[in-house]
Design brief:
Largest sheet: 6 strands, antiparallel
CATH architecture of the largest domain: Sandwich
CATH class of the largest domain: Mainly Beta
Strand content: 35-45%
Radius of gyration: 20 Å
Structural class: alpha+beta
Number of domains: 2
Low-confidence stretches: none
Strand order of the largest sheet: 6-5-16-13-8-9
Number of strands: 17
Shape: elongated
Order of helices and strands: EHEHEHEEEEEEEHEEEEEEEH
Mean pLDDT: 93
Distance between the termini: 31 Å
Helix content: 10-25%
Number of helices: 5
CATH topology of the largest domain: Tumour Suppressor Smad4
Amino acid sequence: MAAMDRIAFLASDTGAARKALAELTRRHGNRPPEEAEVIVALGGDGFMLQTLHRTMGMAVPVYGMNCGTMGFLMNGYSAERLPERLAAAEEETINPLEMIARCADGARHVALAINEVSLLRAGPQAAKLRITVNGKVRLEELVCDGALVATPAGSTAYNYSAHGPILPIDSDVLALTAIAPFRPRRWRGALLPKSARVRFDVLEAGKRPVMADADSRSVQNVAWVEISSKDDIVHRILFDPGHGLEERLMREQFT
């Protein structure tokens, strides 16, 4: 990758990230994101997701440096030789999911998720969900704490904690994973083509309320949720050579 001189630095509110921001700004200046050739995000994975959402549509690559507690999407932090690291970085591209949610009161919400869209029970009783894929009902009733649809990039996050599969970053596949399923017994979910349109209908919504979440953007009391890949939106993420998402996903499975 060619050398990049116009760098925008964005930082989370942690002390480590703010200290890094001051040091890197002193060395390289700090352009507004709209004028930058590359954006450097300083924080953890949560801040990286915020940065990707904030810069959506700019077509500017984002290079993360870990100044937080989690860093799957991040590179190691160092204030040294940053221009050289950016020039040598390898680019990965990912597409987000689109969530369309209809609430019990008729309100409609649209949100994007880079990692996953999840449905979670919002009361003491288990949720009841009907699952439809591409207009065909595939599961009449899933009794569970919730369910989620994850992208390959998000498959090592909540999806993995819920015992879902890790997906190769270049696979055209989505993971549909159940969270603490009660019926059907031990049903873990399914692998779906990236082109799939998934719909969850909430059964007995008044008695068993359900919330939906797209990368920490939550909607309460949903009646149904539709999820699909948003292929016309592309996020560009930069990684140090040999430490890209493909290698990290592989490493997770042999740790």
